[in-house]
Amino acid sequence: MASLGSTRTRAFLRLLASIGTSRTQDTLKLLPFVVMGAVAVVDLASGPTAGLLSMLALGPAFASVACGLARTTLVGAVALALFVALGLYNDILWTSRTNITMIAILGVTVASVLASAGRLRHERQLADVRSVAEAAQRVLLRPVPRRAGPGIGVAVSYTSATAEARIGGDLYEVVTTPHGVRVIVGDVQGKGLEAVETAAVVLGAFREAAHDESRLQGVVVRLENALTRELSGEQFVTAVLAEIGAGSTITVINCGHPSPMVLSADGKSWFADPPDEALPLGMSSLKAIEPMPYHIPFEPGGQVLFYTDGVIEARNGRGAFYPLSSRAHLLNGSDPQLSLDALRADLLRHVGRPLGDDAAMLLLRHRVTYPTASAAA
Fold this sequence. Notes:
- The protein has 377 residues and is an alpha+beta fold.
- It has helices at 2-46, 58-66, 69-90, 96-140, 192-212, 216-230, 309-312, 336-351, 373-376, and strands at 152-159, 170-177, 180-188, 237-244, 249-255, 261-263, 269-271, 294-297, 303-307, 359-366.
- The chain folds into 2 domains: 2-135, no CATH class; 141-369, PPM-type phosphatase domain (Phosphatase 2c, domain 1).
- InterPro entries: Bact_Sigma-Reg, PPM-type-like_dom_sf, PPM-type_phosphatase-like_dom.
């Protein structure tokens, strides 16, 4: 029921957003007529000496912002008709001054029609890019299950720094295997299409190795081998891998990634740093220390937040980083996804502008389960 309620809530919020956008568009489409009507009323009240007829050009200028070609042309025609009517009424038509004003209105109308055509062409191109990006995102970043095993709730949030593409180099996945629930959250060095391709290599290798390898270290080796075959130059991927077994702990291997934040049932929070620093994936040729698994508590009522550096390195206008640790209380809501959505909204408010880097977050919650009446009997 909680999942259904959260789904309906998000759908309702999307509906409100679409209604707000629709009303804004309707207002912008009416604005040219309102402006021209106001100019006509003021000109009639002020007389021929006011010299307001040139302001009728504001109508087609405003129309180019939100109107199509036909409506922009109509607004320009209305502006010219009002100009002629007011000129005849004030007996100033066909003077040198009014002729210049008429040419100006014609010029603004033509320019507005051309600007409207360019805007519509750009909007169509942007819609095509977004549709392709959304299709790629569905393949690359598949929807994670809302539940992963008995009593384990999952929530995910992804915000791309490239608003037109909606996807980038951050990655995440949750798979249920015979060895337990396995999770990966990572960040590919760099941006653009090359980063997306590398993320696809990592996710493909993880989805296969997570089922085949009995130990989490074996999954890391498989990822290293896949990246060695695919990467060129000095590219690398930071990642944290986790495995939820039958006990009350999570096994974690951290490959140069920000440490997950642990939230206990009593409200305390801390960052689960690895015992030894390890290099990111793709740098095995340096023969550094192999990443060692360690355990973090995952008791009923506890939570673990995995994230990328786009979260903790997000700065506001004053240059202050996002204080993730002091925002841990936002994750205490009844529904994991709504709680994570609240944290994401707070992150965007902190920055106050588009993010400079992709930001991915994945929340695991160990739900408190109670025995049923039959089990208690």
